[in-house]
Amino acid sequence: MTNRYVYGIVDGDTVEFETEAVAGAERVYTISHRRLGAVVSDIDTTDPEETDEDAQRHDDVLREIMNYDSGTTVVPMQFGMAFESDRELKNVLRGARPAFRRAMTDIEGRFELGLKLVREDDADVDREAIEGDVADRLEPVAAQSVENDLFSDRLVLNRSYLVDRDEREAFDDAVADFEDDRDDLMVRYTGPFAPYSFVDVKIGAQ
């Protein structure tokens, strides 16, 4: 297995551990170029199939990176980024270095949390009022937030939040307080995740 499958980009070259990774790989390590590190595993293809199992492994590895060494900032890559050689990967790191540096600065010490509010079947809710209430409670605690698609008629709110690690408990408490005040909504609170929603760096796989 000589190809390099990329999970995300970190500062430096300190990440290395054994785990169940994509396409049967068992070890994750870092390939570095000028203080940027691509966290990779070795696979036997440059076009891995996105099975449910491997998509979950990709996300699980990113969580392990985030928790590595008491907390590591990682710029996450989408599933499927694989390169034929270290040289090709380092060329990509070289070309995208300014964008990676900006992204790393934006998400340093932060992760993504998700909130979905689903109305009960017979509930008549005021979406605008709910959005305002949630914003008043959560926006002061979050560093950033983005709106996601309302893919169901019952989905009242779907947002992702970029939250400092140090503010996690305060954010949890704010969500819990909101949930306690509403019996007409189901609260689906998820994360932490690698901050996909707050990073827009795209690299081309070879």
Automatic annotation (TrEMBL):
What the entry lists under InterPro entries is as follows: GvpL/GvpF (IPR009430)
Compartments in which it is found: Gas vesicle
Task: Name the source's superkingdom.
Answer: Archaea
GO CC, alphabetical: gas vesicle
Keyword list (alphabetical) reads:
Gas vesicle
Q: Which coarse location class applies to the principal site listed for this UniProt protein? A: other
One BP annotation, GO: gas vesicle organization
Similarity annotation: Belongs to the gas vesicle GvpF/GvpL family.
Q: Which PANTHER family match?
A: PROTEIN GVPL 2 (PTHR36852:SF1)
Designated name of the protein: Gas vesicle synthesis GvpLGvpF
